[in-house]
């Protein structure tokens, strides 16, 4: 009778161990570790950020399509990348532009791709995919009489009516000998009808050769104006950060705004300087807030605003202008709540022995070990060996999971590159 009780207790212990230790912590089979990249695209739909394309530090084109689920809020240890599986080949595009319209459709235009010989060429087609209702890419040829010709390094914006605005961009390929040129036409794509159109150029007599060319950033404000910041022209001149162009989508009017406040150096593909700048579009002034936990600069990254967090993903960095480009797969998170700006590794990384989560885990492990010891003593040799193997497996699994968490932490570390936060 006593031996049966011991066996029952052991079975209960093993079952409890399986339920509370092993099963909840089995890593997802869909979890991936994407390679480092820059000049990729990112789109937020619901609580998932979808990433597409880009190139690595060897200028190898990447054609993967995956997402990061950020619905966990500040529980960044649970962040993991997962492939978005489609029933056809993904369009391998870098330096293109994407935008989300009609809630769940990602539109991709422009950029560079490689042909069958491995040579770079400008993409003259548009692509779209509905990530909620289908898993198929739709490819359409862009009409040359109303749509933009092949371009790269521009940003597209969509308004509340589903009209997509595409401006500028360069026609230079990677191995091109010239810097190329850019188009000063504002192109519009109606995401409902699929029709392209061109807006008239209205600059109130201001020299339109200073309009943003490529490698700029673009942000839609609540009043229907698009703010274009930074970038460069075809001759390699960087635009003055104290002169910011805005485009009114209601009347197709361009306006050049003189910006005061802090001095912000000119830049493109923002950025390679250790700073974060805020543009107040009410007073048209720049400011540089104090940033907590600064670490690595980067450029050609993406920045996605989710609730109070700006999530900066991937990008490239250089030690200096003459050094090689190094791509990375880091995810950095900026907390913009309460009027403060803080990179937030403290929210998901252990801060030392006083960390409450670490203490709870250690305490629970100690108590469970004591209880198991009372059950194991007096058991048969075969039962002891079997249980020891199970415990050893749990330890190995825990170590594997701990290594996975450490990898996630390394991929979500602090960032301090130049990215605009437009205050409206």
TrEMBL record:
Transmembrane intervals: 373-398
InterPro entries, per database record: Kelch-typ_b-propeller
Pfam family membership, one: Kelch_KLHDC2_KLHL20_DRC7
Keywords recorded for this protein, A-Z: Membrane, Transmembrane, Transmembrane helix
Keyword Transmembrane helix: yes
PANTHER family for this protein: KELCH REPEAT DOMAIN
Protein name in UniProt: 1612_t:CDS:1
Originating species: Ambispora leptoticha
């Amino acid at each position: 009778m006593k031996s049966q009780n011991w066996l029952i207790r052991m079975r209960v212990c093993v079952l409890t161990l399986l339920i509370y230790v092993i099963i909840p912590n089995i890593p997802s089979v869909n979890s991936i570790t994407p390679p480092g990249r820059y000049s990729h695209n990112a789109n937020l739909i619901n609580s998932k950020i979808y990433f597409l394309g880009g190139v690595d530090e060897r200028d190898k084109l990447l054609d993967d399509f995956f997402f990061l689920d950020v619905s966990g809020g500040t529980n960044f240890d649970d962040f993991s990348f997962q492939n978005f599986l489609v029933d056809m080949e993904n369009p391998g595009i870098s330096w293109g532009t994407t935008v989300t319209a009609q809630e769940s459709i990602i539109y991709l235009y422009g950029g560079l791709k490689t042909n069958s010989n491995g040579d770079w060429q400008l993409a003259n087609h548009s692509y779209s995919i509905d990530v909620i209702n289908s898993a198929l890419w739709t490819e359409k040829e862009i009409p040359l009489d109303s749509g933009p010709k092949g371009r790269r390094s521009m940003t597209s914006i969509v308004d509340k009516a589903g009209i997509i605005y595409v401006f500028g961009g360069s026609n230079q390929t990677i191995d091109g000998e010239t810097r190329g040129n850019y188009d000063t036409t504002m192109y519009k794509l109606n995401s409902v009808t699929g029709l392209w159109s061109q807006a008239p150029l209205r600059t109130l007599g201001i020299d339109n050769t200073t309009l943003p060319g490529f490698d700029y950033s673009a942000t839609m404000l609540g009043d229907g104006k698009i703010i274009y910041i930074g970038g460069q022209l075809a001759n390699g001149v960087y635009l003055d950060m104290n002169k910011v162009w805005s485009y009114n989508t209601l009347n197709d009017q361009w306006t050049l705004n003189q910006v005061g406040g802090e001095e912000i150096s000119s830049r493109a593909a923002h950025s390679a300087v250790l700073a974060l700048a805020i543009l107040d579009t009410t007073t048209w002034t720049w400011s540089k807030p104090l940033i907590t936990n600064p670490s690595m600069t980067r450029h050609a990254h993406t920045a996605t605003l989710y609730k109070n967090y700006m999530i900066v993903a991937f990008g490239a960095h250089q030690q200096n202008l003459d050094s090689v480009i190094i791509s990375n797969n880091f995810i950095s998170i900026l907390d913009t709540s309460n009027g403060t700006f803080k990179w937030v590794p403290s929210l998901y990384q252990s801060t030392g022995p006083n960390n409450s989560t670490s203490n709870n885990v250690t305490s629970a492990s100690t108590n469970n070990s004591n209880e198991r010891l009372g059950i194991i003593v007096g058991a048969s040799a075969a039962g002891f060996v079997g249980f020891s193997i199970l415990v050893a497996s749990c330890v190995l699994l825990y170590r594997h999971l701990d290594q996975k968490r450490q990898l996630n932490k390394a991929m979500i570390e602090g960032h301090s590159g130049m990215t605009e936060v437009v205050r409206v």
